[in-house]
Every structure is written in C-alpha cells, then in structure tokens.
C-alpha cells in the first residue's frame, strides 16, 4: 500500500488483529507486533503523564514483556491455573493523528474485555491509544496505552495483558 | 464465638497450630475488628502525603473511616470521617486539599482539627446546642516516627514508644537511604483485593518458605529470578537446579521477632558488590556526599528484606515500598502498596524504584499475582470442616536469641514469625475491650 493509502480501515484491522492475538493467548505473536522500542502501558491514575513518577498497573518494554510471556508459558503459573479466557471488543475507532511522511499514526478506540477464570467473570473497560509505525505492509506498535475507567481502583490479580 | 470468652479464644491457638476458624469465622472477624483493629497501633499514612495545611488523605482503620489531615499549626490530625450530625461520610475523595471539611448533606463544616465551625440555619439549633461538643471524633492516640503516622482507636493500651521501639531500626534502614533523610509517598499506589482473610497477607509478608514454589513461574531455568532492582544485572538465586532444591542462599536467610507480633527477614543475597547502573552509581555518590562514604556504604549494605509492623503494615527493603493491609470482611482484604521516593536521590534512581514495583507488586505483577492465588486457594481450602487445624510448626523449638539485635532468630523458611503473630493476636483478642 502506498503511504497515502493508509486509512482508518487498515489501522482498525491492525488493532483488532492485536486484540484477537491476546484472546487466542498467542502472546509471542502479540509481542512481535511491538517495535523494538515499543511499550505497553496501563496507567493506574487517570490522565497519568508518566510511567516513571507514578505507579502503573503495567509498563512493559520488550524485555519485561518477554519475562511476562515466559511466565505466562510457565507450567507452574498458579494464577493461570486454570488459564483466563478473554474476549475483547474494540470500537469507536478514530485516527487521531497521521503523519504519512513519517509513517506514524495514533489510533484511539474504546475497549471492553471480558475475562473468565476459575468460575468468575469480570469486565474491563476503557479507552486505548495505539501509537503505530508503518513497517512495510503492516505496522509496529510504538506504544499501546490502555486507560481503564477504573484504573485507580483496587483489582484482583490480573495475569494477562488487556 | 459470639461472646468472645477468653478461654474459648485461647483454644484456637496452640503452640504449632491454629484453628481454621481464625480465618473463616465471621464472628471472630467482628471480634478482631473490635479488639485488634479497635485498639492496636495502626499505620495510617505518611506525613509526606499531607505536606501543607488542608492536605488530606482518607483511609479505613478496620471499620472506622478516617481522615488524616494537616492542620494550620502543622500538626497531623487523625479524624473520624463521619459527620456528627446525621452520620454521613464527610470527605469522599481518597486525597485532596480543603481549608475546611464540609459535609455534603446539610453543610456542617469542620476545621482541619475537627472543630465544628459552621452549622447552616443556626437558629434551628436547640437552645443549649454546644458546637464544641460536635467536633469530628478523633483517634484517641496518634504517634509518629520519621514521618510514619500511627493511630490507636483506644484511649488506653500499650504506649506508642513501646509498640514501635523494636522496629524503629527497620524504619531507619529505609529512611536513611534518602540522601535528605526523608521519604515521600507521593508516587501513586497499587491497590489489590482478594477473597481471603487479612492474616493470609500478613503471614505471607515474612514467609521465605513459599518463594521457590509459590513463585516458581518467576524463576528461570537456571534457578534465578528476574532482576527487580535498579542496578542489578539479575535476580536472586532461588533454586539450585542441579539438585532441584531450594538454593542454599535462600535457605540460610534468617527471620527475627522482637515482640508485639512484629518481625523481619534478613536480606536476599544479590551479589551486592556488583550492583551498578548509571542511576545507582549517581545515587551512591549523592548519598556519600551527604553522609560520608563509610556511612553511605553501611546504609547501602542490605540487611532487611521485609519488615512487618503488626498488625497492618510492612516495609520492603528490596523493592522498596510500604504495604498497608486493610481487612474488609472475614474473606475479603484490600491491600495498598505505596512506592517510596527517596528525597534527595537522583530522579532516575527514584524512577527505577517506582517502575520496577509494577513488576513485583502491582495487581498485574509477576510476583504478587501468584501470592494472591495462594491466598484465595487457602481461603477456599479452609472452608473444609473435615480438618480443624492449620500447621505453623516449622522450626518450633529451634528459636535462638540474637543479643546483638535484641531479638529472637530462626531460619526464615521456618514459621516462628507466624507463631509470634498469633501470640500478639491472642494478646489483643483474649481480653474484652
């Protein structure tokens, strides 16, 4: 696709694909969507400015993501015995910024994720923002940020990325 | 257990075992709220959370909602968060700033020392209405040590000095690491909840026995945990993989008790001579400039892993933080974890501490999540009425005095610290308030 052909549909397809990999527990394939300098951030404060001066629920660079995924693959990860099943719903997709020359895009969307594990179901909801960088015919994630509506609430254990 | 007679409660605790009901009986939980959380010295907050007059935080001490607020005279007040008129919670935010505290219902307004200042439509008050008698109730006793604020909801009982004395050194160990000699709990918080009794978390804080098993998923094929501290290249050796057993450095760790249910564990061996990163090296330099190289070296020599200040808080020396344990119900507990900012340390050092706490202690962390699973499963297992007793006998009789620390010592994979917690528990519980 030519640079100026990158439109909402391609970007939306990509972030839906990303969510489906999480639902399929294909965590390594999910990690491969991130750029080498990519980060996955779930703030613990509304409108949080930085992951460094305030605590976050998740703030993983590729190294931490790898450790997290190795743990998810470990046979004795108790908090995933039995494993979570999740279903993401992504909607209200808006291309917030496009820089065709640089091949960089910011995509905002609304996310709902239901999680079922060990006889209990719960729901996460929030807004997410993907900062994407074009790479060939696809994209790499520079940052995925998920702002949960209850980000500063108290949570039971969260084992899988949202 | 409704009456709470001493002889009935004493039957629940034996030298090496406790009755399952201490985790599952709602009536016992009610008694705990009255006899432990209603009178023990409880951690409320840190003075850095309320730096200026009018700054407040709200929290719960057992079942009592409280406001910790800085008054104009600089004092830190611990007030009951309940309007003296019709009982509404006065302050509804977790933290904030207000020169006066105004109830949302009828507008009764209190000063930051709890005094009732304004009653709307005052001509409706009874003739003998005495505003001075309607101030917000306050914690009868408040104590502070190096910024850590504790309160007791009982007018009488062990004094603060006697309570905190045995663990002052543990607080010093943390505070002295700040080049300016003071901490700031201003980097947000982690909050997690679990369907389990509060004592499951309290007991876990000093439990070194569970690590190779409970946290197996954090240990790589070489038996080593991930690096979890600024300046470390790798984490602790937890398992000796060739022998398939707990690593010697882990087994040799010690735990200590010094009265009041408090306890602590010695440090995790992490190749400390090799600890280095640009942020850590700069921090070490700044600390040495403030306190001298020898003292800085001493401060940075790890001695402590976790310290428990019974019954509701702990301090961790490795991934530095303060943890507050708040019972909600017999089978529901909420925990708050505050990252620590070392005032005067380079920003990058503090950033590293705050960030790595996500990995170990957030609700989405690698470490805490498996503990939460263990607590939930313990609560489920303890529902079984076919077996009454919970075993806490590891190392029973192997305790030895540690004169240097004025404490009692045992291997950290033993259960002396849990037995000490139940001794303190019984001390509070067997006596009616």
Task: Provide a quick synopsis of the model.
With 162 residues, chain A is of the alpha+beta class.
Q: What is the helix fraction of residues of chain B, given as a range?
A: 25-40%
Q: Beta-strand percentage of chain A?
A: 35-45%
Number of beta-strand segments of chain B: 26
Structural class of chain A: alpha+beta
Question: Mind telling me the C-alpha Rg of chain B?
Answer: 23 Å
Topology:
The complex is a heterodimer of chains A (162) and B (433).
Chain A: H1 8-23, H2 27-32, E1 34-43, E2 56-60, H3 62-72, E3 85-99, E4 104-117, E5 120-135, E6 138-148
Parallel strand pairs in A: 1-6
Antiparallel strand pairs in A: 1-2, 3-4, 4-5, 5-6
Chain B: H1 6-10, E1 13-14, E2 17-19, H2 21-24, H3 26-35, E3 42-46, E4 55-61, E5 64-70, E6 76-80, E7 95-97, E8 101-102, E9 109-110, E10 116-118, E11 141-145, E12 148-152, H4 160-164, H5 168-175, E13 183-184, E14 190-194, H6 198-205, H7 211-214, E15 239-240, E16 245-246, H8 248-251, E17 254-257, E18 263-266, H9 278-291, H10 293-299, E19 304-309, E20 313-316, E21 321-329, E22 332-339, E23 341-342, H11 347-361, H12 368-381, E24 389-391, E25 400-402, E26 407-411, H13 416-429
Helix pairs in contact in B: 9-10, 9-11
Question: Can you put this structure into words, describing what you see?
Answer:
The complex is a heterodimer of chains A (162) and B (433). In chain A, a hairpin with a 2-residue loop joins strand 5 (120-135) and strand 6 (138-148). The two termini of chain A are 30 Å apart. Chain A has helices at residues 8-23, 27-32, 62-72; strands at residues 34-43, 56-60, 85-99, 104-117, 120-135, 138-148. The longest helix of chain A is centred in the first third of the chain and has 16 residues, at 8-23. Chain A has 3 helices and 6 strands; from the N terminus they run H-H-E-E-H-E-E-E-E. Chain B has 2 domains: 44-145, 3-layer Sandwich (Rieske Iron-sulfur Protein); 161-429, Naphthalene 1,2-dioxygenase Alpha Subunit, Chain A, domain 1 (Alpha-Beta Complex), CATH 3.90.380.10. Helix content of chain B is 26%, strand content 25%. In chain B, a hairpin with a 6-residue loop joins strand 8 (101-102) and strand 9. Chain B starts with 5 loop residues before the first helix and ends with a helix. Classes of the chains: A alpha+beta (162), B alpha+beta (433). At the A-B interface, strand 2 and helix 3 of A face strand 14, strand 22, helix 11 and helix 12 of B.
